[in-house]
């Protein structure tokens, strides 16, 4: 019994039709029938009841089909792992990154990773954290960088940084006289926020609701720098993580820390649970952790 026989048998078990299975396997029907018959002879057991239409599996056939599928998956993972071991410096990783996070620190990570692993191609896809999570689950991307929390039943999350959220207000705003603000201090403000594809949008609505009010959102955008400009023109206030605001040099706005025990900017590398994590993916995860440790040594 070998992996080819098991692969052929599993396909027959799925199709319950020799002709259809042969087409999917790109072999002739007589050749497929011979492989299955040889497998039955080798095991000395009948696996398929050929008297019915469609075919049916015997009890032994049903057991073998279930076990064989797991063996095939394990074999494929082993093959990929061995390939990775000798080809670590090759590969392609598709990574989903929200623009806010990409702007914050990712250029340094990408540049240093490409220098260390020039043979690994990084394909970056900019999209909101909610879209990143969906793309992970449907296999469009291998890794994502998102704001926590995520659906931990289906996604593995590796935290890489935790930072403060800042309130951004016009320079002449009355709140500028305070060293920090509380969420409840914002109940009368007009908000300009990142749109609903960003987890931060939901986090802000949630923390405001917990503080006893529904925020008045007057404008939404996918561009954080555009929100800063709107604040400078006195169109409202916004909330953004401290790291991206280090790039802001406008004299028209002021940043004030938000004092809240749980409203924090927590960022993680994520991937789908139970998927095979290639050596290229592991290398990227470890490299990102190293870079983030140097950028945020106290976190």
UniProtKB/TrEMBL annotation:
Superkingdom, taxonomy of origin: Bacteria
Keyword Zinc: no
Residue stretches making up the HTH lysR-type domain: 1-58
GO molecular function: DNA binding; DNA-binding transcription factor activity
GO cellular component: cytosol
Pfam families cross-referenced by the UniProt entry: HTH_1 (PF00126), LysR_substrate (PF03466)
Signal peptide: none
Keyword terms: DNA-binding, Transcription, Transcription regulation
PROSITE patterns, sorted: HTH_LYSR
Protein family (similarity comment): Belongs to the LysR transcriptional regulatory family.
Name of protein: LysR family transcriptional regulator
Organism of this sequence: Paenibacillus agilis
């Amino acid at each position: 019994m070998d992996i080819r026989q098991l692969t052929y048998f599993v396909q027959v078990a799925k199709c319950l039709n020799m002709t259809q299975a042969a087409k999917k396997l790109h072999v002739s029907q007589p050749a497929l029938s011979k492989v299955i018959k040889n497998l039955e002879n080798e095991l000395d057991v009948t696996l398929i009841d050929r008297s019915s239409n469609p075919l049916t599996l015997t009890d032994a056939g049903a057991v073998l089909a279930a076990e064989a599928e797991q063996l095939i998956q394990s074999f494929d993972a082993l093959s990929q792992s061995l390939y990775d071991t000798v080809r670590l410096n090759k590969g392609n990783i598709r990574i989903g990154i929200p623009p806010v996070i990409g702007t914050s620190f990712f250029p340094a990570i990408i540049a240093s990773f490409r220098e260390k692993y020039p043979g690994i191609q990084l394909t970056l896809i900019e999209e909101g954290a909610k879209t990143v999570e969906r793309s992970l689950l449907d296999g469009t991307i291998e890794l994502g960088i998102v704001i926590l929390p995520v659906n931990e039943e289906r996604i593995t999350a590796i935290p890489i940084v935790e930072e403060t959220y800042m309130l951004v207000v016009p320079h002449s705003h009355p709140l500028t006289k305070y060293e920090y603000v509380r969420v409840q201090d914002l109940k009368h403000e007009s908000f300009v926020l990142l749109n609903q594809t960003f987890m931060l949008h939901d986090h802000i609505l949630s923390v405001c609701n917990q503080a006893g009010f529904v925020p008045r959102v007057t404008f939404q955008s996918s561009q954080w720098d555009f929100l800063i400009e709107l604040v400078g023109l006195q169109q409202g206030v916004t909330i953004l993580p401290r790291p991206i605001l280090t790039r802001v040099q406008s004299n028209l706005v002021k940043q004030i820390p938000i004092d809240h025990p749980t409203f924090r900017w927590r960022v993680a590398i994520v991937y789908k649970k139970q998927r095979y994590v290639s050596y290229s993916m592991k290398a990227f995860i470890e490299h990102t952790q190293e870079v983030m440790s140097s950028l945020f040594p106290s976190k």
